[in-house]
Amino acid sequence: MKVLTIEDLKAVRTAAAKKLFLREESDKSTDGHSSGLDAGTSHMQVLICGGTGCKASSSHLICDKIKELLEDRGLSDKVDVITTGCFGFCEKGPVVKIIPDNTFYTQVTPDDAHDIVNEHIIGGRRVERLLYVDPKTGQSVSDSKHIDFYRKQKRVALRNCGFIDPENIEEYIARDGYFALATSILQKTPDDVIEEVKRSGLRGRGGGGFPTGVKWGFARKSVSDIKYVVCNADEGDPGAFMDRSIMEGDPHSIVEAMAICGYSIGSSKGLVYIRAEYPLAIHRLKTAIGQAREWGLLGDNILGSGFNFDIEIRYGAGAFVCGEETALIHSMEGKRGEPTMKPPFPAESGYLGKPTNVNNVETFANIPVILTRGADWFASIGTEKSKGTKVFALAGKINNVGLIEVPMGTTLREVIYEIGGGIKGGKKFKAVQTGGPSGGCLTEKHLDIPIDFDSLLAEGSMMGSGGMIVMDEDDCMVSVARFYLDFTVEESCGKCTPCRIGNKRLLETLDKITGGRGTEEDLKTLSVLGKVIKDTALCGLGQTSPNPVLSTLNNFYDEYLEHVRDHKCRAKQCKALLTYSINPSLCIGCHLCAKNCPADAIIGDVRKPHIINPNNCIRCGMCMARCKFKAISVN
Amino acid sequence: MPDTKLPCDVAEKVNAICQAYGDNPGELINILHEAQHVMGYLPEEMQRMIARRLGIPVSKVYGVVTFYAFFTMTAKGKYPISVCMGTACYVRGSEKLLEEFKRVLGIDVGETTPDGKFSLDCLRCVGACGLAPVVMIGDKVYGRLQPVDVKRILEELD
Asked: Which residue in A554, A381, A366 sits closest to A460, CA to CA?
């Protein structure tokens, strides 16, 4: 099928809208009744999360099983089974949703398929055991709208994730997909489009927060025979999966936005630089590009406008520094991903020396909706200087791990305690890390600051690309800083001295402290060296790499001091500072610890209290994990 | 590393990959991605061959191979084990898990057991943070693991 005019596109939208109507209506409905085919419901849909997290828990097998059961009963034409992108509630995955009653099933296994089909789809009775149970009330909740995790969210960039079939272009069109592109190229000038993006206040979601419209304006001004639009999908922050989920759940939004960007800056060539470690995202993106070409929404003379645009995929090969735009461009040219000094900015001289505009996946995902709903609508969300919403990968010691999207200005407390459901296992909150290896750790006293670019920066952290890791009292902040430094040292490209050598010295100093050999002098070294690296490193990676150390030093100085002065790690994470011992009054002499000790450090006769020989003990904690009588403690 | 000659069929495949990309040095990373599929790693001889075909110094190819974490110069085991070292997994104890794998297998990160069965690596975030800590063995994801589970998993595979 080739879409030739905007009228054709409208016809496709009308036809496909019927299928989505059911989903949209049930999303709005407040009636909590379940429905089934036996009770007269004529058509039902089963949405199954096909995101990486749920797939890892075999959601594809659930899908196969449900399809098989429906086929056996001859119901395939009455019930659509649709694999969607990420629903976000990864903690409770795999997630299955039944339409039209909007029932939200969590932690489903392939064995549950039988009950879902027989009880619910046919019989109209919800499968109670698969419903989400609100930990506060103990009541089960059938509609995701009423789950705290979703209540405070606002889905803009994730608008289609978990709602449409990402491999079906018609479902995307039914959600007004490609209309932003169509109206831009047919009815607006490139300057109009750039102006609209500027007015929306959208800022780069990759971490920098640079105004997107202004960036496009620079690229537009550059004069060249050829220009490039690049989508930075090299999501490298360890513990963040926002961009991947968008590409997996709504790949057409990226294709459409890149084409719009191409029209605005005067480019006909788009490149997606994506991590090779994201096979599913690559597959979905390739499918989307193929479909868009087939439908005439990519290629020559799109919708008869005379505008040509096509997209190619380039693979990253696992280098964090390639998130930096100049390094990314070198990597796309087949070279080592080393950054270069700016200026010249990519907008003047980028890929193959030509003007290049680089935006991150989430930034692009916001573009179509800004143009269809208007800059004013977008600018009405968020804070004064940070407009719109932000997607976060909420993880760590939190009850509801998952992918969330909140309006800018939401507080960390709301995210952690309302959406995230608080700290796991009733433990005490200690810190929240934002911005990944470039960001910092914030504490209890920062919980009420609004999340936006400027507030986080002012507190010594940063927005970053959207990783948000929650830590509890069992996390040692010195070890966490060490963890990030270890990452940066590994990922430093080695080009500039402050980053290559400075970070290595920082890491060695942290190793010394966690290894029990630190001194108070070392704390000064960390602080001085960290500041020098920040001031002198060449690129964004080096300039921000000391942030985890500096922010923990700032906010958790006592803990550092305990490590170097008292040789104690209060979180009991730094092995060298720990002593394991057996409480003789609790030990029954079952010998299980001794049997499992890899270092033969535990001695004792059967039925008599055992003891640990500290000279042999390697502090692996295996004995403590095995002891059934809680007789082993660590200090 | 000894100067091993590549088997004929491997050389043919690598040549074909280079040709498909027009022997263009700008496509080096894409070529290496596909070439790594052929044997599961990029031995020195293969890098020499690619450099010759593209008309660039071997040092350039080697420079790229060693720069990117995805490329490897050692053969992986039958069961390649990758422990996720993303932050979410780290705070839920993946470091202890890695220690246990190292201890039980007697190898370090980036190494393969002498019998060629297991190789050990770290990776950064699989995106299954809800299941943290996560280990990938081949294509299979193992979630919510504790060090005490390590022995059992290895025995099951063995």
From this structure: A554
Q: What is the distance between the alpha carbons of residues A435 and A113, in angstroms, rounded to a whole number?
A: 39
Nearest-angstrom CA–CA distance, A54 and A89 = 9
- Name, in order, each residue with C-beta under 8 angstroms of A295's C-beta and a sequence gap of 6 or more: A1, A2, A3, A169
Measure the N-to-C terminal CA separation of chain A; round to a whole number of Å: 69
Residue A286: C-alpha distances to residues A87, A167, A270 (Å) = 22, 10, 13
CA atoms A240, A491, A55, B119: torsion sign: negative
Q: Which helix (H) or strand (E) holds A229?
A: strand A228-233
Residue linked to tokens 């459901």: A421
What residues of A are in contact with residue B96 (Cβ under 8 Å)? 620-621
- Asked if B30 is an interface residue toward chain A (Cβ–Cβ < 8 A), one would say yes
Please state the ipTM of this predicted complex: 0.89
Residue A455's SS3 state is: helix
Q: Are the CB atoms for A55 and A84 separated by under 8 Å? A: no
Q: Which pair of tokens denotes residue A278?
A: 């994201």
Specify the residue for token string 């496509």: B27
**pLDDT(B2) > 80:** no
> Which residues of chain A are under the pLDDT cut of 50?
none
pLDDT tens-place string over residues B100-146: 999 999 999 989 999 999 999 998 877 788 888 999 998 788 999 99
User: CB pairs below 8 Å between A and B: how many?
Assistant: 140
* Bond before A166 cis per omega within 30 degrees: no
Distance CA A39, CA A305 (A): 50
**Interchain CB distance below 8 Å, B127 and A244:** yes
At position A156, the amino acid (one-letter code) is V
Of B29, B30, B99, the CB nearest to A620: B99
Does the beta-carbon distance from A53 to B131 stay under 8 Å? yes
Mean pLDDT of chain B: 91
A168-200: pLDDT as tens digits: 999 999 999 999 999 999 999 999 999 999 999
Write down the pLDDT at residue A502. Answer: 97
Residue B35: is its pLDDT beyond 50?
yes
Please list every residue in chain B whose beta carbon sits closer than 8 Å to the beta carbon of residue A493.
Answer: 67
Q: Reduce the DSSP state of residue A299 to 3 states and report it.
A: strand
